[in-house]
Amino acid sequence: MPSQSVAIIGASGYVGAELSRLVQQHSALSLLGCYVSEHSSDAGTLLSDLYPQYGHCLKISLQGLSDKEKLSIKRQADTVFLCTDHGVSVALAPEFLEAGLKVIDLSGGFRLDAVEDYPTFYGFEHKQARWLQQAAYGLAEWYPHEIATAQLVAVPGCYPTASLMALLPLKQSGLLNNNKVIINAVSGVTGAGRKASLVTHGAELSLQAYGLFGHRHTPEIAQQLQHDVLFTPHLAQFPRGILATVYADLNPGVSDKELDNAYQCYAEQPLVRCDKRARPAIKDVVQQPFVDIGWHRQGNQLIVLSAIDNLLKGAASQAIQCINLQLGLPIEEGLL
Amino acid sequence: MPSQSVAIIGASGYVGAELSRLVQQHSALSLLGCYVSEHSSDAGTLLSDLYPQYGHCLKISLQGLSDKEKLSIKRQADTVFLCTDHGVSVALAPEFLEAGLKVIDLSGGFRLDAVEDYPTFYGFEHKQARWLQQAAYGLAEWYPHEIATAQLVAVPGCYPTASLMALLPLKQSGLLNNNKVIINAVSGVTGAGRKASLVTHGAELSLQAYGLFGHRHTPEIAQQLQHDVLFTPHLAQFPRGILATVYADLNPGVSDKELDNAYQCYAEQPLVRCDKRARPAIKDVVQQPFVDIGWHRQGNQLIVLSAIDNLLKGAASQAIQCINLQLGLPIEEGLL
Amino acid sequence: MPSQSVAIIGASGYVGAELSRLVQQHSALSLLGCYVSEHSSDAGTLLSDLYPQYGHCLKISLQGLSDKEKLSIKRQADTVFLCTDHGVSVALAPEFLEAGLKVIDLSGGFRLDAVEDYPTFYGFEHKQARWLQQAAYGLAEWYPHEIATAQLVAVPGCYPTASLMALLPLKQSGLLNNNKVIINAVSGVTGAGRKASLVTHGAELSLQAYGLFGHRHTPEIAQQLQHDVLFTPHLAQFPRGILATVYADLNPGVSDKELDNAYQCYAEQPLVRCDKRARPAIKDVVQQPFVDIGWHRQGNQLIVLSAIDNLLKGAASQAIQCINLQLGLPIEEGLL
Amino acid sequence: MPSQSVAIIGASGYVGAELSRLVQQHSALSLLGCYVSEHSSDAGTLLSDLYPQYGHCLKISLQGLSDKEKLSIKRQADTVFLCTDHGVSVALAPEFLEAGLKVIDLSGGFRLDAVEDYPTFYGFEHKQARWLQQAAYGLAEWYPHEIATAQLVAVPGCYPTASLMALLPLKQSGLLNNNKVIINAVSGVTGAGRKASLVTHGAELSLQAYGLFGHRHTPEIAQQLQHDVLFTPHLAQFPRGILATVYADLNPGVSDKELDNAYQCYAEQPLVRCDKRARPAIKDVVQQPFVDIGWHRQGNQLIVLSAIDNLLKGAASQAIQCINLQLGLPIEEGLL
Question: Which CDD domains does this chain map to (chains A, B, C, D) (predicted)?
Fold first, then answer.
């Protein structure tokens, strides 16, 4: 089996911790180190002190990312996972890429097609147009070849993963008519990140919509789907998981068989569980690397339901799927 | 102040208990008795034993509804509230109506326009076409005059209340175009009733869609709105509350001012809290008689958010609004 | 009915907001103003913007507590409620007391008997020994006369309220033997206050003990009970409520009747619901001003269960009980 | 590696499903079949239809346990896991034992020392005194040799597991004085089993004590610990997990070092995570096979905190530990 040395930068967040755990239990990956920003108060802390649930496997000291550590990563690592803020990823990635490493970025820093969209949706000027262009979009079941050969992979956002896994089979099969697709999605609170905030305060949490008309995942979904979408996220009080309820219209004359056939694209995919009768529930995907999909139809109206764990298929386990593809391993290696 | 003697039938369920409490604390209403079906095992039990939270105000013995009790109700009560199953309401209501009492029914037994829809959506033949025709639809802010003078009031369903309160201002103002309106709604588990069931088991609950394309609240919303709707309910793990996220398209050329003006219909309504900037949350309406509404627009796309307590504005407190209207009292009497 | 003008300082926190609401709906109280610290970013904000659930009744602008505002309070208010941090209360209270106002303090600043205990349990030197000595302990059912005549009332802590309401009947009746009493208590997250913190992050919350052997409510309970106690609090993921499970040993020979008689002290108390068979639950006291108490015995071992809403009987509604006592009103005035 | 054919009877409950999953992913175990009672409505259903979260690994048809199936099990299985009701286990176990199979019983049917205790605590006469006497108590870290050689293993109850793992180190080291030990424990709702019930209804759940003085886990803990205990369970609204807060008194003169040394017995145990500074939380053990333990002391008063997943270390994963011991495998085989 191939073996890769990997570094995880931004390891102290929810996604970073899940990824660290997955790397630790992956037989083809060797964890060089877990890093946080140079002056973070978490530097020097054991990852297992932040995440006691992983006390048995993550007794790893978080290291501040000094120049010296960067040098050490460049010398010893094959792949760098970035679980950093969007802007930090855009700043860090080229450094490692130019040193010849592969980079799998879990931020939004390399997800959009055009640098022009960054000021609007991410609030900063994107100065890495060349790398942006070269980045493969890491939706693992859909772009395995691009991912396998890319030096830079942009792992999709959590909502786009749930949404695109539901919709791409229809789009690819030419079954969607031109009407706007409506995506109503609900996420657990880990989606808001691990930082002190009133928004995530346990007594303030309640089912509530946010980011109306302007969420940064809207352009990501639209450009990947090549379709007009209206995406509305909601925050709920549960810790993990996303449920997307997708409303779409079929072209006239689409038969049930054509519809079911469209989802046959997932028939051999080990991490996709789909069924036309299914009503996926958050509890069934939490702490699991699967996406659960069900579709329901009345006339030309279609409702597709899609559920994932936002930290796994929506981030960390999908990043593992990407490196599996790069290493020529089964897509689910280390995940089941 | 006028004084009314009221009987509550079906008082042992979640809605019945809330209504009993509201009647108890209403200075114009006198509670004749709380009834359950004749052979219910709850007969003889104190309502406060089922609902210890109301131990201070509901030390009322539930009575089996025998013929003798019915007679007593007919003799002494002015108004009967029915919190019974749909079919039971249809069977019971005429008996009290014909004895000259007023009936406020919280089931779906008299909500639809046509008896023909009952076998499809409620699973029984409706034999009371005449009363169905005479029933006023108890959406209190919208039909105060019909409610005030009706002998029979059909209190709206919980989802229709949340949906219609959000949409009727647009429809009435002629702002909606002809496209189908999509209503994505999430309800707490009390919406499933107080009965032993795996569906409501605390370890089985999780955000999940149900009733796709076929929920009985769809025709209720559509006929009241006079508009094509696609309504999708979801069950969540919290006890109470409904959040409806409504997607609608405006007619071309509707100005922001026209839109805001449409919601001015609620300006003087004491139990409607609405604001174009609002993002209503479940926690803000739980145990309260309000509906919270916010609207958001991009071009001609509109999202209206609407939150209620399913047991209060979605049932019991709306029933109190109805009797207030009948008694010529302020609509919020006894609710704030 | 008497009428009092009251000011609420520290109104932006969970307790302050509940208290503001209760004052607003109390017919004998007139709310002069709601205040926050002079340079708080909340100054100028509507209280209802922080608490949309009270949008209908708390459209009150929070005012920074400048010298000018203090003067205005001294001139116009009869009573000041302090919902401030412990040290702030100790600093502020004398100022208002010396101006002749009454002060009802909801912090821990005046709860302990001895100034010497403050550095250990509250982390500051207490310079107001004289006022500390004069403060009445505001456990409303137990010290009505002291409260009625005191210029300064120290409203008990939430855990001490739940614990003492369970234990004082036994102590007063001489039924407790000398063994240490063990109090195992669980609180909702509002108990940790309304501030951004990882501790209260919705994804970090989980049932967990804290403050082992050293929580500041231990000396408060012990000195009021005049008994050795071991108190262990736990944080849980629900928003509101406290359940205390109290383990105590009875003196030899105590009869069931003597035990039940001890709790007869509450027979006429409108805000105490107690029963020897009861197993109080958090859900039954949330958003209610009651304490629910049940006791269970085997031989001389006794378990007393006690549940309150930490923000109401554990703070705001008990403060209202105190001012009711001071005004000669029924203890439950404005609370039911 | 040794290979064993195992049958799981009572596979449709929460414990049975977890155990089926663990057996499926265990490389030394081969799953002969999953069984339910002969006339159960679940017979013929796929286990994954009841547990969609295990859709990828439990597409196993539940079989009714007819005489024919029993015969087939006797012929082909090496070990039978019983996840059945207590009385059913007592009836079934001897049949398989006498056919020479090993039985690992997850019910309470063989946990108590004396048949005389069964009518009181389990409500039935126990007719299998001989097997009861031969049963090894399956607390895996404590009785590895007995378990390894026993034909019948009684896997401990969930509360006893959490309690005994916390207390046995103290008892074995002779550090506990004679005072009664108090165990205050809180369990998630899966502990109440997977059956329709008002007790487990999502809107009825709330932190609440039950089984005061009489819970059947009391004698189980007391006899294993050989110590007087007062055990009080509470039901909470979360799905999984137990937190036990244990109050005990140390003998006079016990040093900190002696105390810490007592827990050194777990130093090499891969599924015990313990630390004198730890405050275990439910979230850290959910879906994990660990027990997390922390101890805290003041003088001779000791508080030990202990957390497990009630379905794993409290049932299914401990059963796997037992079969690992029987097969001479590492105790954690198949669990990490």
Answer: AGPR_1_C, AGPR_1_N
